[in-house]
Amino acid sequence: MADLQGKTALVTGAGIAIGQGVAIGLAQRGVRVAVHYSHSKNGAEETVRQIEAAGGEAILVAGDLRFVPECQRVVDETVSGLGGIDILVNNSGVTRAVPFLETTEELYDEQFDLNIKGYFFCAQRALGYMLEAGRGTIVNITSVHGEAGAAHHAAYAGTKGAIIAFTRSLAIELAATGIRVNAIGPGLIEVPRYFDIPDYTTEIGAARVPVQRVGTPTDIANAVAFLASDEASFITGQTLIVDGGMIARM
Asked: 37, 119, 129, 156: which one is catalytic?
């Protein structure tokens, strides 16, 4: 396991799915975690319960990250509650599979405001604390949709491609400071919402993946822990695709 003992982290969207897995995975490595949620309060409370039951430390932080003041407050509450912020995991986001011609301005704004605007301004606020402390790392959760095309995901894929470009540019701007910025692009990571898809099963999902299994939030948590650790000290501006080989296949 990557050594992260004594670090502090904010994981946005940690009340469900990938964010929940990342928060728990970091806590297992000795990180004190701020568990952020917007709508998934019950899930966030369960995340904290699991962390504390295993002997870890976590706090709850609520906020709607579509709005800049909320981004700032969530980061500020993390710092006041944990005493600092060493790791920011930008994960909170929304997926809408909608045909291009049916994508309204409201649907477009919903995705861009949370999926990229929220990342941008959480990072901006966290960076002030990181520069003051002289340390820190940012991991942005993007998606294979930022690298490969799929029907009915034009707006969503646009946000995920924007995250990749944002990651590269910010990493270069901060490189001389020692603060690293990377991204992770999950593939088919089986989370509860998959079972809302008509006819979806774990077996069907696994058949689409070259390694013949679906991914889990733990797979993403392991990747986040590596990129946030000193073991990745020479890695910045990169997007690590964690997808079992899906987009590598011709």
From this structure: 156
